[in-house]
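In response to reviewer comment 3 from the previous cycle, which asked for concrete evidence that the modeling workflow produces usable outputs, we include below a single protein chain processed end to end. The sequence was submitted unchanged, and the resulting structure tokens are shown without manual editing.
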Amino acid sequence: MKKSTLSFLFLALASQAFAQKTNTVLTGKLDNLPKDQWIYLSGFGNGQKDSVQQTEKGFRFDLDIPEGEGDFYIFQVGKMKASGEMNGAFIFLEKGKLNINSKTPMLKDAKYSGGKLADYYNLFQQRSKVTGLDALYDQFGEARKNKDQDQIATLRKKIDNKNAEQATLDKSFVLKHKNSPAIVYPMFFTLRNGDDLASLDELLQQASPQARNNVPIKAIEHSIKTDKLTGIGRTALPFTQADTLGNKVSLADFQGKYVLIDFWASWCVPCRMENPNVVSAFQQYKNKNFTVLGISFDYPGQQKRWLDAIHSDHLNWPQLSDLKGWKNEVGVLYDIKSIPSNLLIDPNGVIIAKNLRGEHLDKKLAELLGAPVMDKNTLVIKGEIENPAKASWFNIRYTDAAGKKVADSTQIFNGVFSYLGKVQAPTQATGYFSDGKSGAPQSYEQYLQFYIEPGILQISGDASSPQEIVLSGLKTQDEFNTYNNLIKSEIAALKPLNESYNNKNNEYIALKKQGASEEALNAKLDELEKIKEDMSPMQQAIRDKQFSYIKKHPNSAVSAAQLRFFVSSVDLAELQSIYDQMGPEIRNSVNGQELAEEITKLKSGSPGSTATDFSGMDINSKPLKLSEYRGKYVLLDFWASWCVPCRKGNPHLLQLYSKYKKRGFEIIGVSDDDSNPKAWKKAVDQDRIGVWKHILRGLKTTPQGDFDKSEDRSEAYGIHTLPTKILIDPNGVIVGRYGGGGGSDDDLDAKLKTIFKL
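The workflow returned the following structure tokens.
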């Protein structure tokens, strides 16, 4: 107990006055308790707090508790741990003595003695109890850890049944000890949390005035009294309170609507975790005569925190508060003892439900209002994640309903978050979790690739393993899940090879930075190529399964989006056939329009089309124009210095060039090396292919980081993979396409033999 240095006379007078007021004494001794350890005693709501350090004789607390003000106190050894665990006990104290002794420093081993206060506690601890409840809670914790939803639901029912059995036993305890304040223990800890206040009222009517003359029982009686005024079936009590701008808002202002009065606070973790469910309900039913009215239990000086939470959690409905914390006048009026809490009011102002959360709120609103009607183009994302990496933000990138690229984020609160956006049709999105400081991840595995559209998308799983995150609730995303599940086994088999490839690639980068020889670099490239060869069968299996799905489901947003990855390797006729089977909605979508453009480009780069002319400065800074080579067979070789298959194919091209040059054959290399002309020229020299013409692709980058394709020579030919070769006849008509949606090198050899009759 903390003491100040005072005069002897003052101490004597104070001690005498204190002794006269003291009527409750708590003493005891805890063996082996460290001498510097503090012991705390604090009241639940009366503000009394005290602390002592144990002496050789033990510890002692002296209190003055007036008649009728007996209450629960927290008796605690040391500070509470971050996990919420504490070495403590909840004890009921009124006028009297209580002695607590333990052979260890742990209160769970303590014995309570000294009179009626100990009797109350011991009676409660020794009462009849159901068996197996602790084991069920352990199993429930394990099921949540394993994300076993079926087991969670089963165990929750068993736990509810056990708690109901215990409540029956505790009601019998109350009747048996109806003349003793001992009833305060079961009334406070097991019975007051039930929704059936009427039966609780009936139970208390049988208890003596002496048993009821304490703070906890009086609080329960107040709740019963208030429930008679604010219970289900009663007309909601009127109130007025200020909104975020200081304007007065009354419950009467919402007459004629279904109103969910939502009691919450910015500092309340369970409230913040429940907010995404309220956001979802509001967005679904706000167009069906439903709204939410928030009542915040934030404290004086917390207005900014309150406003920040409203903005962060997307609480786009009227918000009221007097910033008095638990003394919020509306909360007191409705006797709100815990938050989150809510009341559902019907259009006539009658309370029709209480404390609806999660799916129960959705179910009740659907029962009352029918099918949801959301605002046009509205997207709601609800996230509930495990957060071992302490991710504090969910970041998302997509194209919105106005065609604008969106880069947005929303804060994660205790593993829960919500996001509101506008999107017109099924759209691909990218997401990732971050701490708000480190920027975007560098690894592809840390990104989520998913589909959004108007509706509600649910995200759950481990934030540190984005590839295993579960996304559901939207039609297109559910289809994308099916699409991805086709290749799960192949993806799993590729994982170690991908890791090996990344490691080797890092080794290559390190060697390059160290200025290693060409021989060493090429050796490492060969290793990388070997891994790619090992990956090839699985990659082909993936492509086969995916393309098979696309052919079976042509009129699908997923198929339209994924087909772009096959444009360069699929026969043009087959590609056109799939496109022809798409309905107007898919064709008019962004992906459908892009696919139509790609088909047009492929056609312009396929046999039968006139080759698109281009011009520019060649590798020797001399003008080059494709149409000036009319009268010759021209092979356009789309390649790059960094393309290993391209470089490996150059010796064969040298043979073809040597064989057919004098017969009217020319090669023009079009290199994808605009960002590194030096590497382009070096590769031309190393591979000794400077004997034919060379020009860059012409792809530019804007200051904003976007691509400028106005002079891109690959675009008109539908080039998506390297190497790709286009053979043009003397009249400027394309007569062959090889690689990138066309034939093979063998096909090219055969075509040239036919042309030149060799």
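The mean pLDDT is 90. We consider this sufficient to address the reviewer's concern, and the full set will be provided in the supplementary archive.
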